[in-house]
């Protein structure tokens, strides 16, 4: 890998990608970031600031996942392509095929068609997810922690559409990669990514999740829902390590630990006190099931996920990518502090 060759990062505006861009620049690399609309007046401020801090080493290029060939120009001369662009929407999604599956699957195909058409590319790092490893928490019944050998076999466009979008996109990517031998691919599988955001414009499910701790959504309590969790800074480092470690190969679960919304609330309460609407109580599964559709969850989702444990084996990422995961207290605390600094977190009125 030529360290002077530019690195392409797709979806550069995004929550995860912004940290990848920042670390690449701090490491001395030259970066080409793709964005859907480089002329928009807000949402690019953090990238503009990074470009100013690293003169001549960050350029933004217009590209859309649904436009075949739109990545060709930005990719020319790159040896490493980090493909993060893909919508991450939680809760009720009106049209899963259009909003999630198509951009994830067709977008991955289009980006890899550009890779096939660009002779300089040697490696692709694809942002997948733990949700391409498993579908519902109940899938762990009777077995141990999920590993990179596991695939999500239970999601569909109707049930768990976001996990489905990530699974079909990653499968397609491995198929396309397997049809040639000029470039190789490494996939990164984060749990829910938390930690400070460089932008307030992201619509990522990570932001929706953390906002629920301040907009009173969870003031009455939270269901016992376990999920994977990892710091955005560690996820960014994982992508870069996967890109530049010659022996890196295959899939890497990139997850610090499992956590529930109540545990996140407890961590937040310890650092920020009781004047924010953090959840205290566990909402019983039966009660949550009744109100779930209003909160954007199906009753099938509640049945198959609430109350079930969830574990992932992250040993490959530690031994082969050299990751040392941050503590949840730092990830969650730093994220919430940044929401306070950005004026997003609201205090509960004192009674
Ligand atoms: P994000 O902030 O919403 O970023 C998503 C990016 O995708 C944005 O830059 C967006 O560009 C781009 N995008 C969406 N639709 C597009 C289209 N049609 N054409 C071009 N670009 C498009 O979300 P994120 O959390 O950073 O997610 C980034 C990646 O990490 C995704 O692949 C996601 O599946 C994966 N991931 C995230 C998490 C997590 O917890 N956040 C966990 C596991 C995996 P615009 O600015 O133009 O909208």
Automatic annotation (TrEMBL):
**Residue runs in coiled coils:** none
**Can the keyword Magnesium be found in this entry's annotation?**
no
The answer to whether UniProt assigns keyword Magnesium to this entry is no
Q: Which CDD domains match?
A: AR_SDR_e
Keywords, in A-Z order: Oxidoreductase
Q: Which residues form the NAD-dependent epimerase/dehydratase domain?
A: 7-242
- Pfam families assigned to the protein according to its UniProt record, in alphabetical order: Epimerase (PF01370)
Instruction: Report the sequence similarity comment from the record.
Output: Belongs to the NAD(P)-dependent epimerase/dehydratase family. Dihydroflavonol-4-reductase subfamily.
Descriptive protein name:
Aldehyde reductase
Native source organism of the sequence:
Nocardioides humilatus
């Amino acid at each position: 890998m030529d360290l002077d060759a530019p690195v392409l990062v797709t979806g550069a505006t995004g929550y995860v990608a912004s940290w990848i861009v920042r670390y690449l620049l701090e490491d001395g690399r030259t970066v080409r970031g793709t964005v859907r609309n480089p002329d928009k007046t807000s949402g690019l401020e953090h990238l503009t600031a990074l470009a100013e801090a690293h003169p001549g080493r960050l350029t933004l290029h217009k590209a859309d996942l649904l436009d075949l060939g739109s990545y060709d120009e930005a990719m020319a001369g790159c040896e490493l392509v980090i493909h993060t662009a893909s919508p991450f929407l939680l809760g009720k999604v009106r049209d899963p095929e259009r909003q999630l599956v198509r951009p994830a699957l067709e977008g991955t195909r289009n980006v890899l068609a550009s890779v096939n058409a660009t002779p300089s590319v040697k490696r692709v790092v694809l942002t997948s997810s733990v949700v391409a490893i498993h579908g519902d928490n109940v899938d762990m019944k009777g077995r141990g922690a999920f590993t990179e050998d596991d695939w999500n076999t239970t999601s569909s466009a109707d049930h768990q559409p976001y996990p489905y979008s990530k699974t079909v996109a990653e499968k397609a990517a491995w198929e396309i990669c397997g049809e040639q031998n000029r470039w190789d691919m490494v996939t990164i599988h984060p749990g829910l990514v938390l930690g400070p955001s460089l932008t307030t414009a992201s619509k990522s499910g990570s932001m929706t999740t953390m906002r629920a701790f301040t907009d009173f959504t969870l003031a009455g309590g939270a269901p016992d829902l376990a999920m994977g969790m990892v710091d955005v800074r560690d996820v960014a480092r994982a992508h870069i390590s996967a890109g530049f470690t010659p022996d890196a190969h295959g899939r890497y679960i990139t997850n610090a630990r499992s956590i529930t919304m109540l545990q996140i609330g407890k961590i937040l309460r310890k650092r920020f006190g009781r004047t924010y609407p953090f959840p205290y109580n566990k909402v019983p599964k039966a009660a949550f099931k009744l109100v779930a559709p209003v909160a954007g969850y199906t009753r099938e989702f509640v049945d198959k996920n609430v109350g079930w444990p969830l574990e992932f084996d992250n040993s490959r990422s530690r031994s082969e990518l050299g990751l040392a995961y941050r503590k949840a207290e730092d990830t969650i605390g730093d994220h919430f502090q940044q929401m306070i600094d950005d004026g997003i977190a609201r205090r509960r009125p004192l009674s």
